[in-house]
Each structure stands twice: as C-alpha cells, then as structure tokens.
Amino acid sequence: MSVSIFDATLPSMLRQLAALDAILEKAAAHGAARKLDPTTLLAAQLYPDMFALTRQVQLTCDFAKNAVARLAGQEPPNWPDEEKTFEQLRTRIASTVDFISSFTPAQFEGAETRDVTLSPRRSYAVTPLGGRPTTFKGAALLFNFALPNFYFHAATTYAILRHCGVELGKRDFIGHF
Asked: Is the pLDDT score of 123 beyond 60?
C-alpha cells in the first residue's frame, strides 16, 4: 500500500489543528473560571528562551499552510502575526483549516519529487542550513522539516497550557479520529 503526500499531510494536519482549537477553547474557559487575565496564559512560556503560547500557535498554523501550499506548487500566503486573544488565535486556526482544506489531491501529484526551496523568512523559527536558502524534495520537506516543526509547536502549545494547570490529557492533544 502506498500513501500519497496529500494523504500523509492534510488529514493529520486537519485533525491536529482541530485538537489545537479545542485545547485553546479549554484554556480560555480555564482562565475565565479562575478569573485569570488571558494575557497570562497567552504570554506563558516553558522556558525564557522559548516562544510564548501565542507564537507557538502562529507557528503551528504557519507550518501547516506553508507546507501544504509549497507541496502543491504554490507560494503560501504571508499572514501577519497580530493575534492577541484566544479568539483571534482560534480564528487563525480556522483560517488555516479553510486554506489547507481548499487543496485537492490532484494538486499534490508529483509532490514527493517536486523541488521546494525555502528562503529564510520570519515565518520559520528555524531556518535550515543556517539561514541560507535550502532546496528539498517534497517528501523530504514534509517528513524531515514541515511535519516535525508542525508537531513540535502544537505539542509545545499543549505543554505550556498543561504546565499552567489547564486540565488536558493525551486525548486532547491527539484529537478525534
């Protein structure tokens, strides 16, 4: 059985984005129930040299939309990082879901061998090869760069909120099948 790049990308990203949205909904409710200033959770970090929760969510969305667009042979949209509330982050997730859901399997034909060049951009927290442009084959981009980064930032969002006392479990992170 072979798995297409489309099938290896969209279903898992869509499931994870839905789980991320549900996690943020729980976080907002947690903060409201405890009368916390929402910025307390939104600015939370696991360690001082790591990005705060807001940036983790933005990067999760960026790795999804950027990977999907590039694998389909398109230039991804560049969205400003202006979210300051849970609702705005959830809107960004919804926009990401809408964007990546618009792609069809036909747009991914040949994606595994398509050359994709990444230039250093603000949308990537990690630039491959020390900030120089890097060319990947589509499969290598997906499996060695985009998916690991996508899941890293989603998992870090979960970890920040769990560390802050939001009642989350593994099922919240994995989402529904």
From this structure: no
